[in-house]
Design brief:
By secondary structure, this protein is α/β, with parallel strands linked by helices. It has eleven helices and 14 strands. It is elongated, with a radius of gyration of 25 Å. It folds into two domains: 32-128 and 226-271, D-Maltodextrin-Binding Protein, domain 2; 131-216, D-Maltodextrin-Binding Protein, domain 2 (3-Layer(aba) Sandwich), CATH 3.40.190. 34% of the residues are buried. The strands form five sheets. The protein has a five-stranded mixed sheet, sandwiched between helices. Strands 4-1-5 form a three-stranded parallel sheet. It has a two-stranded antiparallel ribbon with strand order 2-3. Strand 2 (49-50) and strand 3 (54-55) form a beta hairpin. The structure holds 2-acetamido-2-deoxy-beta-D-glucopyranose (4 copies). One 2-acetamido-2-deoxy-beta-D-glucopyranose binds next to loops. One 2-acetamido-2-deoxy-beta-D-glucopyranose binds at residues 26-28.
Length: 272
């Protein structure tokens, strides 16, 4: 092939690409991001039952929901120059409500799981957490590992129906396994000596350790490793926006474990 032919082919190909490009219709983007901007409103799905992330006290309007993720939702709306509108969702209907278009972003301490990723998008992680043990401080020295806790002489407690009970059944199988149905008073079971250990999510454990001087978390490293992210519809443009905003919040220092725990303490003191 001589040089002139090559050049000729190059020109032909370029011309073809130009033709394709200019033939493409001037469609508006169909991203959720554009919908939010033109709507002037960001719809934020919250469960309202997970301190410090989102919490709705009985009888309180959903627009007055509180929590660290709620504050982040308001900041995200402000970054877009739109109003934040909160939408009540629930753990069992989280994905269904997202797919029904009831909200643009789910924010309530949502764990990033492959099951969720199969049908939706999850933002970059903003919180690392895992299962952590809480015991009475006076017993703190006895426990340096999960093995030290998983003994027949130890009474464990768990709230039935979630990952805490699953952890108890699988990893505290040698203990005297008890359950307690009331999530609000379950930490008192340990503090008051009815149980010796409760294993729950680290954010919550650290919060209670701060709130109740009788309680300690002697094993700093979590037994499991999970991450939280925000739940989004399958929309690359919207995902990219949320991730950049999240990154900037992180750089600005608004996503520290301390700030989440502080928020949770305030919610407990005010409501529970
Ligand atoms: C794109 O959106 C603008 C503003 O909403 C509207 O005026 C215009 O007609 C739209 N164009 C197309 C091709 O839909
Ligand atoms: C945003 O909220 C303000 C105050 O409630 C209201 O005046 C305004 O109309 C709202 N904007 C939109 C786009 O809903
Ligand atoms: C109590 O906690 C368990 C385990 O995390 C959870 O499955 C359950 O929904 C909670 N119950 C209430 C009433 O919040
Ligand atoms: C297990 O714990 C329960 C609740 O504290 C207690 O009543 C029971 O005696 C314990 N059983 C054993 C074998 O320690």
């Amino acid at each position: 092939m001589n040089r002139i032919t090559m050049t000729f082919q190059y020109i032909t190909i370029s011309a073809c690409l130009c033709a394709i490009a200019s033939a493409a219709p001037a469609v508006n983007s169909t991203s959720v991001l554009d919908t939010i901007l033109s709507r002037g409103e960001l719809l934020i799905g919250v469960t309202g039952d997970y301190i410090p992330f989102s919490f709705l006290a009985d009888g309180v309007d959903i627009q007055d929901v509180a929590g660290a993720d709620v504050d982040l939702g308001r900041a995200l709306a402000a970054s877009l120059g739109v109003n934040a509108t909160f939408v009540q969702t629930s753990w069992p209907t989280l994905l269904e409500d997202l797919h029904a278009g009831l909200y643009d972003i789910g924010m309530s301490g949502i764990t990033k799981t492959l099951v969720r990723q199969q049908v939706a998008y999850l933002s970059d992680s903003y919180m690392d957490f895992g299962k952590m043990a809480v015991v009475r401080c006076e017993d703190g020295d006895k426990y340096a590992s999960l093995d030290d806790l998983n003994q027949p002489t130890v009474t464990s407690v768990a709230n039935p129906g979630g990952t805490n009970e699953k952890f108890q059944l699988e990893h505290l199988d040698k203990t005297n396994q008890t359950t307690w149905p009331d999530n609000r008073s379950i930490y008192d079971r340990v503090a008051e000596g009815h149980a010796d250990v409760f294993v729950s999510d680290s954010v919550e454990v650290l919060l209670h350790v701060d709130l109740d001087e009788r309680l300690c978390a002697p094993i700093e490293e979590t037994f499991t490793q999970s991450e939280m992210g925000f739940l989004l519809p399958r929309d690359d443009i919207w995902l990219n926006y949320v991730n950049l905003w999240l990154h900037q919040e992180e750089v600005a220092g608004s996503l520290t474990m301390e700030s989440f725990i502080e928020k949770g303490e305030a919610l407990y003191v005010a409501n529970i």
